[in-house]
Amino acid sequence: MKIGDLEVRLESRQVLRNGVAVRVSGRAFDLLKLLLEADGALVTTGEILSRIWPSIVVEENNIQVHISALRRLLGEHRHLIQTVSGRGYRMSRPQTAPTAHAPTSNVPPEAPQSRIDYALPHVQGYFFGRETCVAHVRAGIDMGEPVITLTGPAGVGKSRLAIEVARMLTAERSICAAYMSLATQTDEQQAYRSIGTALEALGAALAQGSSAQAPGPRGLLLLDNCDRLAEAVIASLRDSAAFRKQLGIVVLLTTRMPLRVSMERVMQVPCLLTVPAVEGTNAALEMFISRIQMLSPGIDVSATFIENALALVQEMDGLPLAIELAAHHTSLLGIETVRDLLARDIDLPSQHMRRMMESRHASLNAALKWTWADLGSTRHAVLAGLMDAGSEADLAGLRDIAEGVGLSSQEALDAVTELVERCAVLRATDGATITYRIPNTIRRFLRQERASTVTQLE
Fold first, then answer.
1. Alpha-carbon distance 98 to 81, whole Å?
2. What is the value of pTM for the model shown?
3. Tens digit of pLDDT for each residue in 150-191?
4. Is the pLDDT of residue 293 over 60?
5. Which of 22, 144, 231, 314 is most buried, most CB within 10 Å of its CB?
6. Which residues of the chain does CATH 3.40.50.300 include?
């Protein structure tokens, strides 16, 4: 439903202005939906009270408060909501201007320009084990950190975390949120322009909003999948007038490694295996069992099944994407078969289950391969050397491996740092001992890449 520069999305319960989500309280949206669905018919005061406040008794002036808020939202179209004295309210449909009949011409009409959609993506399903992460991200936003970067390995759920936080803030507070994914963009200049356009659209939406300045930020731009376009992101933030004008805009990024700029606050998203257990169950196992029970309601969750499930989520490094894929295939093939496939380094593709997601998430291997080339051949060689050495080593051993492929001591240290930052190697501490290991999912990926190379050479 379009009303001037507003778009009302009833299914996702969002109101967008020029493609940017604007704040509407839950009851105000319920009232707007009720009036729109009446299609111009009168909605009585009694019906509004029973539909919007079904289980509590409130005074009629509560309706007037929300009607006033909706009229402010509609701006120049505020007249569409009409008060029927003593009876209730009705909302007229916006008038569509008649189309003038142009003279016949052989020149084809110019294609209308499509408006860029900055609405938050729709996500479903319970959000497991991220309460602490959500609290930390929200605290950073409340503090007005200008750039917050969520880092972590492929499939750890950086995008889902960012989207969930943005949805919470738009639902609870007067924050405008805009979303842009850079996953399919490859050109630095095009990405630079796209990010600048999104920042200007968000700035314009804030300028049209309430003049009363509430504490904390007023706008949130979520830039998803920034891995390959870090320079474009940095340049667009540096050059954006809306970002420089101190309009209260926070930029929330997802990428596998930090931008390394002075204004950046980095938050690493951990795998679910490291989330503290609740009532004896870790979040990774809880997610896997929940997904299995949803896909196969009659499944017998026995002690043996739980033992296999715990081993499986550990083999998947506690990554939500990997757990989701494993649960899908377990519901079809059984948990023993899935474990056997993983032991033989056979990838678990998503096929139909992620048809609406980007192709880079068609499987965990596709997510890993998306930025694999960005590591470069020397980092590949260091990983291969570490895998041949048993997939785990201390810093001295890892530097020896790096120097063994032709790197100087400084280059070896830089290579180790980048591999850790990209989560291709995990850092573990045991007292004073620090070791580095290749995660299970990446080790399987490396073995598959090596086997593919051997096949191509043959």
1. 22
2. 0.71
3. 999 988 999 999 999 998 888 887 688 899 999 888 889 999
4. yes
5. 22
6. 131-270
* CATH 1.10.10.10 domain extents, the chain: 2-91, 372-457
Distance (Å, rounded) from C-alpha 362 to C-alpha 105? 47
Q: Which residues pair with 177 in a beta bridge?
A: 21, 220
User: Mind listing the pLDDT tens digit for each residue in 410-442?
Assistant: 888 888 888 888 888 988 887 888 899 999 989
Confidence at 97, pLDDT banded by 50, 70, 90: very low
Q: Out of 1.10.10.10, 3.40.50.720, 3.40.720.10, 1.10.3720.10, which CATH number does the structure's domain 372-457 have?
A: 1.10.10.10
Say which amino acid occupies 209: G
Q: What's the rounded Cα separation, in Å, for the pair 394 and 380?
A: 18
Residue 225 tokens, joined: 């999948």
- Are 397 and 435 contacting, i.e. CB atoms less than 8 angstroms apart? no
Name residue, tokens 């998203």: 269
pLDDT confidence of residue 278: 62
Most confident of 127-131, 238-242, 367-371: 127-131
User: What pLDDT band is residue 213 in, cutting at 50, 70 and 90?
Assistant: low
Please tell me the distance from the alpha carbon of residue 181 to that of residue 191, in angstroms, as a whole number: 10
The topology under which CATH files domain 131-270 is: Rossmann fold (3.40.50)
The CATH classification number of 2-91 equals 1.10.10.10
Query: Are the beta carbons of 33 and 46 closer than 8 angstroms?
Result: no
Q: What is the 3-state secondary structure (H, E, C) of the chain?
A: CEECCEEEECCCCEEEECCEECCCCHHHHHHHHHHHHCCCCCEEHHHHHHHHCCCCCCCCHHHHHHHHHHHHHHHHHHHHEEEECCCEEEECCCCCCCCCCCCCCCCCCCCCCCCCCCCCCCCCCCCCCCHHHHHHHHHHHHCCCCEEEEECCCCCCHHHHHHHHHHHHHHHCCCEEEEEECCCCCCHHHHHHHHHHHHHHHHHHHHHCCCCCCCCCCEEEEEECCCCCHHHHHHHHHHCHHHHCCCCEEEEEECCCCCCCCCEEEEECCCHHHCCCECCECHHHHHHHHHHHHHCCCCCCCHHHHHHHHHHHHHCCCCHHHHHHHHHHHHHHCHHHHHHHHHCCCCCCCHHHHCCCCHHHCCHHHHHHCCHHHHCHHHHHHHHHHHHCCCEEEHHHHHHHHHHCCCCHHHHHHHHHHHHHCCCCEEEEECCEEEEECCHHHHHHHHHHHHHHHHHHC
